[in-house]
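ok posting inputs for the cytidine-5'-triphosphate job
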Amino acid sequence: MPATVVLGVGAGIAAYKAAYLLRDLSKRGFDVHVVPTPASLAFVGTATWQALSQHPVHTGVFDTGDADHVELARRADLIVISPATADLIARLRIGAADDLLTTTVLASSCPVLLAPAMHTAMWANPATQDNIKQLRQRGIHILDPEVGALGSGDVGKGRMVEPHVIAEAAASILKCSHVSPNDGSQGFDVSTPRLGAPLDGQRLLVTAGGTREAIDPVRFIGNTSSGRQGCAIAQAGLEMGASVTLITANISPALLPVPQERLTIIEAVTAADVERETLSRLDGHDVLIMAAAVADFRPSVVAASKIKKDPATLDAPTIVLERTTDILAAATTHPHRPPVIVGFAAETGDAETVRALGADKARRKGADLLAVNRVGDGHGFGDVPNSVDLLNAQGEYVDHIEGEKELVARALLEHVATLLGTIAR
Ligand code: CTP
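and the output
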């Protein structure tokens, strides 16, 4: 039996897009049950949902006389709410149970994915932002809205992400949560390229992790990059249909995508390893994504044996450093430069400083996109959400992406697909 997805529909103009989402989810083999809020029926009615889902549709807790909410909550492997309106988000935050949808969410223990859609002012309002923050802290997955034309005629942040992005995220969450379909097999194969996958046939070269530069046989200079963001990009690339070569620098095996036909993993330790493995492969790839934290300096001499303390003095050794190659800059001017190159820039400081440093770096590096990654302050490295500003080669602002690394990866690759011309934006 297929996995059960409850598709909640909020009362917004984007409700019609949930119909496309429903079709996408059904095509992927999920059994979708639609639970609209009563107010959303003004946008799309029950007849549409019943016809598309082939299941009865209810909005009230006691519509059938049975405990529908408990039954659905028990069966659901994932609840997706699209569009999630400001009001619905607020009700979810306080744990309201005033219709079948909110009651089902409250009674369930499965993952929940929200695709918010609302006017820019409502999204930016501190009340909504606070609700979003709280829900994220509870582990609810949230796909930040995009900048675009809104139902009101205004243009701004608040437009719901496209249905195929929500469907990809849903499939990925089901896979990550190791939900077993009721037939007892292991998880869902979201790695199989699907018709219309935005990176179908594209070849991605991704670097991830942090390099280590030896001082002596037992010591090195390293950095705190875990490799999570690069691995998330590799995983998202596979899900979007690409083949991926992942160059890993000192990454825990637990973080790596599961082995599969379209994934090649190359291990590297030092900046020189990453340089050699990356530049020699540019020719066979369409996209280079430099997510690795590569050392800028390495000891100019590596001691052949362990450096010992001099017991007679308190002297400490002086380590002389030399520059490493800037691989990203080398790739952008390489004769085999891939059509799309993406760099990351880890910067510290307040948002404005980070953006200014990023814009300067974007202009210097020559990458098509630079994801300026604010580190420190609970952002960036390690098992924490990520927050990036996407800049173009001229240092101009393209997009802001914030959220779990999987969602940042997916949104970043949407931009890559746009540059490759495989999807229109
Ligand atoms: N990078 C690289 N080769 C290096 C150092 C960095 O290819 N030797 C890449 C990183 O993978 C990243 C981008 O360059 O995509 C920016 O890295 P970052 O460390 O932020 O910038 P740097 O160029 O090292 O500049 P600085 O440390 O002076 O800010």
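notes: Residues 271, 290, 292, 294, 296, 324, 326-328, 343-346 surround cytidine-5'-triphosphate (CB under 6 Å). The mean pLDDT is 88.
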